[in-house]
Amino acid sequence: MLNHFANMIVLTVKDPAAAARWVLDGGLPASQTWLVFLLASALSGFFAQIGLILQPLPSTPEMMAPNGITMAFMVAGSILILTGAITWIGRAFGGTGTAGEVMRLVTWMQFVMIALQIIQIFAGIISQDLSVLLAWFGIGVMLWMMTHFVTVVHGFGSPGMVFFGIIGSALGLAVVMSVLIVTVGLVAPQGG
């Protein structure tokens, strides 16, 4: 079982489109989506806490280092927000994927990211610079997977166009969220 899991993670990095089809064809059963989602969130929080214990963040009075439970909730929220965004934006551009299908793919992507997180923790023990390099590699892998997952789930024809759609959507959402945060008053604008 563990060997199959590891093989599927390697396949996901090498050929994310094939991995997406595997997930959607029952590799991650729809009936177990919520259970697997909770497991991915908890494991992410756990390994984030391990990483913080082994490589503590510099702390300041204004910034508290998150604990494992907080990280698990943050990952869970991120998965749900990403699921909604991929579903809604993809459908707005003519995609056919459902929220359930998207959630299964995003949850599987999180398991791949957990595997990279574990490797990064061990690399950080050896070299902080190697750990940072792996973090950047992880961002690239995440974009690579997400591009192909969105292409497959929504039935789009061009991964390149999907990639630019992801970048554009991320920038647009960042602007909207920034305006909302300042408007609601969660962050006071800086300046004279």
Can you give a write-up of this model?
The chain is mainly α and 192 residues long. It has one domain. It contains 7 helices and no strands. The chain has helices at residues 2-14, 16-27, 33-54, 68-92, 99-126, 128-154, 159-184. The longest helix is centred in the middle third of the chain and has 28 residues, at 99-126. The termini are far apart.
Helix content, binned percent = over 70%
Order of helices and strands: HHHHHHH
* Total discrete domains: 1
Unreliable runs? none
Rounded mean pLDDT score = 87
Count of helical stretches:
7
Structural class of the secondary elements?
mainly alpha
Oligomer: single chain
**What portion of residues belong to β-strands?**
under 5%
Shape, per Cα inertia axes: globular
Radius of gyration: 18 Å
Whole-Å distance between the termini?
60 Å
Biggest sheet architecture: none
Tally the beta strands. 0
List keywords for this structure.
192 residues; mainly alpha; 7 helices
Secondary structure layout:
Elements: H1 2-14, H2 16-27, H3 33-54, H4 68-92, H5 99-126, H6 128-154, H7 159-184
Helix pairs in contact: 1-2, 2-6, 3-4, 3-5, 4-5, 5-6, 6-7
